[in-house]
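User: structure tokens for VOC family protein, please.
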Amino acid sequence: MAATLFVNLPVEDLDRSKAFFTALSFDFFGATEDMASVIISERTQVMLLKKPLFSSFIANDIADPAKSTQVMLALGLEDRAQVDGLVDKALAAGATPIGEARDEGGRYQRAFRDLDGHHWEALCLVRPTD
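Assistant: Done. Predicted tokens:
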């Protein structure tokens, strides 16, 4: 069974978040005044929801990303250049870096927090050289 994944994230300022993901070269599927759908791939979208709308779908409080991490969103990319390119764009658009680049165990990865504090990882599998 092929499924489409919709990751829903609460955001403080939707226009600011849309500008951030546009700066990372992502396209949008659609938007309303309180949500926007970022296209990650053919079968994956990140739904940016203003906090009041996000709250209407949940029973618990919205986690404060400044105090805890609920999820790490990892984007698998093709090579180091794509990893570095995406993270460099994110940092230029106002993201905060998380730690240093990791180059171990057959993978290369870098991490950042978006404008609302959500944890993102960009990684690629490193092909061994002969």
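User: Anything notable?

Assistant: The domain at 1-57 is CATH 3.10.180.10 (2,3-Dihydroxybiphenyl 1,2-Dioxygenase; domain 1).
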